Amino acid sequence: xxxxxxxxxxxxxxxxxxxxxxxxxxxxxxxxxxxxxxxxxxxxxxxxxxxxxxxxxxxxxxxxxxxxxxxxxxxxxxxxxxxxxxxxxxxxxxxxxxxxxxxxxxxxxxxxxxxxxxxxxxxxxxxxxxxxxxxxxxxxxxxxxxxxxxxxxxxxxxxxxxxxxxxxxxxxxxxxxxxxxxxxxxxxxxxxxxxxxxxxxxxxxxxxxxxxxxxxxxxxxxxxxxxxxxxxxxxxxxxxxxxxxxxxxxxxxxxxxxxxxxxxxxxxxxxxxxxxxxxxxxxxxxxxxxxxxxxxxxxxxxxxxxxxxxxxxxxxxxxxxxxxxxxxxxxxxxxxxxxxxxxxxxxxxxxxxxxxxxxxxxxxxxxxxxxxxxxxxxxxxxxxxxxxxxxxxxxxxxxxxxxxxxxxxxxxxxxxxxxxxxxxxxxxxxxxxxxxxxxxxxxxxxxxxxxxx
Amino acid sequence: xxxxxxxxxxxxxxxxxxxxxxxxxxxxxxxxxxxxxxxxxxxxxxxxxxxxxxxxxxxxxxxxxxxxxxxxxxxxxxxxxxxxxxxxxxxxxxxxxxxxxxxxxxxxxxxxxxxxxxxxxxxxxxxxxxxxxxxxxxxxxxxxxxxxxxxxxxxxxxxxxxxxxxxxxxxxxxxxxxxxxxxxxxxxxxxxxxxxxxxxxxxxxxxxxxxxxxxxxxxxxxxxxxxxxxxxxxxxxxxxxxxx
Lengths: 453, 244
Description:
- The complex is a heterodimer.
- By secondary structure, chain A is α/β, with parallel strands linked by helices.
- Chain A is built from 22 helices and 10 strands.
- Chain A has helices at 3-10, 14-36, 41-57, 59-72, 83-97, 108-112, 115-121, 131-139, 155-166, 175-192, 218-225, 245-256, 286-291, 306-310, 312-315, 328-338, 355-359, 366-379, 385-398, 401-417, 428-432, 443-450, and strands spanning 76-80, 101-104, 125-128, 195-198, 202-204, 209-214, 228-234, 238-239, 264-268, 276-282.
- In chain A, α2 (14-36) packs antiparallel against α12, α9 crosses α10 and α16 packs parallel to α18 (366-379).
- The radius of gyration of chain A is 26 Å and the shape is globular.
- Chain B is of the alpha/beta class.
- Chain B folds into 2 domains: 2-113, no CATH class; 126-241, Rossmann fold (3-Layer(aba) Sandwich), CATH 3.40.50.
- Chains A and B meet through α1, α2, α17, α18 and α19 of A and α1, α2, α3, α4 and α8 of B.
């Protein structure tokens, strides 16, 4: 289902759409309060953007530097060209351990690579330990938001879900009790699973360490209790120096949820005695995007989700309408790089209002890239024929003044005298909106009468 | 000062009173205004739909209509932004550059070029401003709520010069109305929902007259208002600034 159809379905429930919009707008307001408390906020954004600019220009060198330092620290480094190779590497580590059960903290990269279904097919049970991800996992759904995976779920519905899966009392919708139940259920998994996967927020080239940010401490619980820690990351998550964390950590959570910093910003530098630590670097289209000059800045993304919270379309269509692991405006400029045919609709799911580009903590020109993707998709034949024909007709009319004036006159005459021609169910404008009332004369006609000699 | 008046296609066809008010305002401040009769459209509907490559003829026409003027002024931030960002012609790039750098949206022309400080306009109503995105985030006629920067608004500065006018404070200062060009029909459900939410903000805060610098957004909001039979009238800012 394309975005427009999924969004129409989402909007059938008017009150729920209101609720979804207001919930995310509340997060945007929290972001505003946090950002406005930092007088140098815009300078921070610019600094972060420039650091990432340098990273993208020197990506190969920083990756090699990281690999060298990480190996020195005793971390095993793996390289995956695409999602499939990433999944195979993870599976091979699990097999070498003889393990069929594991825990995983939040990682949008593993969502992008569809790791969970791959491991399930290969007989491995994965338990997501981030509360929001656990909820959507129990529901058999993908996350609808990269930071708030179950933002589309109401607490009453989670109560029903937990009653079914975790045995909470029927009708219980108390967030504290539900969280407690999830925590108890997860504790047993943490204690018994020998392998833990985490994502990576930042990997520091100069030290070979990586940083994982969570609010629940679930990444730490998993990694500290397991014999094997596998960290999966996209190659663009590298930063040159540890001191740069002073820029990114200040921006990340203020942009994401309005908190000054994540509850846990954990540095993993080397395996503890007897532990194995792996890091899997994934390309999966990133080097292709790096080679697309007008789109390369999309790789600056630190996955804060601020563009989703501010996007008036996302708030009123929901994350699943984007049919991609990363939804919202940033998803709409990343997804076509992965598959133009499947994601040709996404750059059009925007009014180009530009709010996304201006909340973005690394200053990605998201709305300009949406415009550029529209041109690329159209030129590469990913546009419906009917649309192309109507655009050609429109262009022909609008580039010929005489034809334009005549068409305008006929159009207004028709609307005034035969309104049913436009006021009908074939006209999507008219479905829920009135057409403008046609005036007797155009401005051009008025001007000719009143101003020309 | 020779000013070329650019009246976008849909304003020409559906809202002649907006063109008239714009013309009269500019004349009132001593501009020598002409309306090139052969103008049509800026080409944005094609470009935003992914067909910028079909806008070359529109570009050529626009350049031949407007390259001779000192300034080009239009009552539409969105169309002005499109010209500023995208008007090019291999054979006439010097003239295209002149047009791109001398085209102004009406309110920014009044405040920045004509430096208007006094309007002698009277409009005794509660007015709610719809701050259109392209004027705001593209042309910077007003500060956007996302940036940690001092607030300003050129349209509101002008409206504050109108006697009797009371500005309405909205809950969401600058959320998009959902028009978005062809988005308004391609993504009809979300577009309408965004329009309903914008209008509700005005209803809740007591707007009598909803105004703005972009008639396209206002046409969409007016369509929603009329269908829902709400007690709000829609007027372009030029009409209010030109009122007696």
